[in-house]
Structures are given as structure tokens and as C-alpha cells.
Amino acid sequence: MARLQILELPQGGSDDRPPFVLIVDQYLARRYITGLDQPEPVSEFDGIAEKIGARAVLVFEEAVDIPANDLTAYLGEAEEQAETPRANERAMRAEEKLKAFMDKRYTIEELRKANLTDALGLDRQRDWGDIGNAARGMREQVDATREPDVSAS
């Protein structure tokens, strides 16, 4: 299961809130095609940094421990108690924004997939590989029935 971490960056003079980087680790990549006109797979994290206000989103398959997130050795007990709720609140807000974004992307993907399977005459249980294969097969049929262009020679 993917894990979310937030790495706070040094705050600049013009920053109204602390800048951060969202780190997703232990993530199994899923890429999908948004349509026949865009055959290149799209990453699920495209554009997410802008939507949640992060400086960047770093995604790793393996577990990544952020030493900067472990402040227990540097903070006194009172400082630790004061710092934890703010960090947890920011993490929860970022996680809620990420979840809402991913839910929206999933809904859009499912709608596009349903439209494509309907247009191709496939059942909606097909995966993107089946849809791509069906589209390629239809394209080959069209190309095979098309007359060669003799005016080009």
C-alpha cells in the first residue's frame, strides 16, 4: 500500500505558508491511456503538485524514510507536542486533496473507458490493453480496405 509523506522545505521570505514536497513511496505504478488520440500512457501524478500546492511530488516503488520528518531527537517534549498537530493537519489536508484528485481522475478514466468500449463494441470489463488491441485491429481493417493513393506518385 502506498504511503504518503510530507517533506517541509525551508520557508522563503515571500512564502505565506511553508513549502513542501509530497513523497509517495511503496507505490506500484499504474499508467493509463486517456484515449485513442493519445496513445502514450499518462501518469496518475501528472499535475498533482499544482493542485495540492506542493513544490513537487516524488514517487518511489521502494520505501523511503525522510530523516527530516523525524524531529524527536531535536525537539523538546513541549515543542514536539506543539509541532505534531500542525504537521498532521497539513498531512491530512494534503492526503484529502490527493484522494479527491485521484477519485476524480479515476471517475474520468472509467467514463472514458466506458465510452471507448461502447464505441468499439466491447464489454465494459475489458482492460486498456484489450481496448488498444481492438482499436489497432479496426485501424488495420480500415487501412486494408482503403484504396492506395495513386496521385502521390
Describe this structure in words.
The protein is built from three helices and five strands, in the order ββββαβαα. It is an alpha+beta fold and 153 residues long. It has one domain (3-145). Strands 1-2-5 form a three-stranded mixed β-sheet. α2 packs parallel to α3 (128-145). The termini are far apart. The model has no long low-confidence stretch (mean pLDDT 78).
Beta-strand percentage? 5-15%
The shape, in one word, is: elongated
Low-confidence stretches: none
Instruction: Give the number of DSSP strands.
Output: 5
Q: How many structurally independent domains?
A: 1
* Main sheet specs: 3 strands, mixed
User: How much helicity do the residues have?
Assistant: 40-55%
State Rg.
Answer: 23 Å
What kind of oligomer do you see?
single chain
Mean pLDDT: 78
Terminal residue distance: 58 Å
How would you briefly describe this protein structure?
The chain has 153 residues and is α+β, with helices and mostly antiparallel strands. It is 44% helix and 13% strand.
